[in-house]
């Protein structure tokens, strides 16, 4: 796991901690709840829930979640596969999150089971300085990295229209007078693509 990924998982677990997690309910509609991210390591993210909850059943049936959290104008989102690892890491989770011992004192914690998000993709977004946003993408496990933002093809004619409409001024002219978008500062608003006269700017295929 790359150091950047570890940094983003640390922010998600230690700074944000409580995140919104989405699964599908019995009718196939999105259902969300707030869940604490308890641990992270080079194998992924860890959280837990009780066996009696509908969230538990959905995790066991679907094996996939989408989650997002934000604090102090910094946000992290992750989409990925999850698996039940039982009571493995449960003691470590309670040691790192002592408030859990007050919610589930003594042997009552036996009803909890740990889930690991072991494969997925994520994105970090920082607007603490609104005039100069920062973003980054990352992968967990064997997931394929997903391109984000907008890209400029060789069809660019160098008209420079996109430069004047970018709210973050993150487009510059590069080699052969072709526009270049700095992905780490791009809002993905799409305004550049709208004004391009030759449709040279596009979102990458997923």
In the predicted model, the low-confidence regions spanning at least 5 consecutive residues are none
Number of strands: 12
Query: Beta fraction of the residues?
Result: 35-45%
Content-based structural category: alpha+beta
Counting H and I runs of at least 4 residues, what is the number of helices?
6
Distance between the termini: 22 Å
Categorize the overall geometry: elongated
Order of helices and strands: HEEEEHEEHHEEEHEEHE
CATH top-level class of the largest domain: Mainly Beta
CATH architecture designation of the largest domain: Roll
Give the % helix: 10-25%
The CATH superfamily name of the largest domain is Electron Transport, Fmn-binding Protein, Chain A
Q: Kindly give the count of domains.
A: 2
CATH topology of the largest domain: Pnp Oxidase, Chain A
Q: What is Rg?
A: 21 Å
Tell me about the biggest sheet?
8 strands, antiparallel
InterPro entries: 4Fe4S_Fe-S-bd, 4Fe4S_Fe_S_CS, PSI_iron-sulfur_center, Pyridox_Oxase_N, Split_barrel_FMN-bd
Organism: Mitsuokella multacida DSM 20544
Pfam family, one: Fer4_7
Cofactor: [4Fe-4S] cluster
